[in-house]
Write a structure and sequence with these properties.
By secondary structure, the protein is of the alpha+beta class. The protein has one domain: Alpha-Beta Plaits (2-Layer Sandwich). Helix content is 18%, strand content 14%. The chain is built from six helices and seven strands. The strands form three sheets. A three-stranded antiparallel beta sheet has the order 2-5-7. Strand 3 (88-89) and strand 4 (95-96) form a beta hairpin.
Length: 202
């Protein structure tokens, strides 16, 4: 024969179980007025990704694919390619003095992030050895089509600031990539390059 429930189990436990309900029943309801009233995010909020640049405009991404390997949702796709300092001719027939997009031996020729898969965990930016990939505070990523939520490299690259030059071009801040990565380059008075403002969060 099963034991009869005690008075505590019959009367107090149900009341205690609804304690949170009773405590909040008479509180004023808080209504968020989004999207008309947008609240600021936390400083280290993990939002949309950004591919950063060096102050001379070269890309920080070296196409190592470590971010793609670190992604638990398999949302990042990277194809690396080799930089070249040999002069060449572009599609318009103009001479281009360099085919260099980053200070290293390689750069990210193709860079895609699928925001249908991305969980915004930030493991990719922890894996990046050059701080090329950071996360901004932008969180409005909804769209009407699935294709538009696959961001290409052009969508992710930080904009050119005054003094920056659109790659490809030779290295302006040092003789080799070590000067970039160690921060030992010195800017002359004639160099109109600005400091990199794109170190957002990690």
């Amino acid at each position: 024969m099963a034991d009869q429930p005690s008075l505590k189990e019959q009367f107090w436990d149900p009341v205690a179980g609804f304690g949170v309900t009773f405590r909040t029943m008479f509180r004023k309801v808080v209504t968020e007025q989004y999207p008309f009233d947008k609240q600021p995010t936390a400083p280290r909020f993990h939002g949309r990704h950004q591919l950063n640049r060096w102050p001379d405009g070269l890309e920080k991404c070296i196409g190592c694919e470590l971010c793609a390997w670190a992604c638990p949702a398999d949302a990042i796709y990277v194809e690396g390619a080799s930089n070249s300092d040999e002069p060449t001719v572009d599609a318009d027939g103009n001479a281009v003095e360099s085919q260099r997009f980053s200070p290293g031996e390689r750069y990210g020729r193709v860079y895609q992030i699928n925001y249908l898969r991305c969980i915004l965990c930030g493991l990719c930016i922890e894996a990046c050895p050059t701080r090329a990939l950071t996360m901004t505070n932008e969180y409005e990523l909804a769209d009407a089509t699935r294709e538009s939520l696959i961001y290409e490299k052009s969508d992710l690259l930080a904009p050119l600031l005054p003094g920056m030059e659109q790659p490809p071009h030779p290295m302006r801040l040092g003789e080799d990539e070590g000067d970039y990565y160690r921060g030992t380059h010195r800017q002359s008075e004639n160099d109109a390059v600005s400091e990199d403002p794109h170190e957002v969060i990690s």
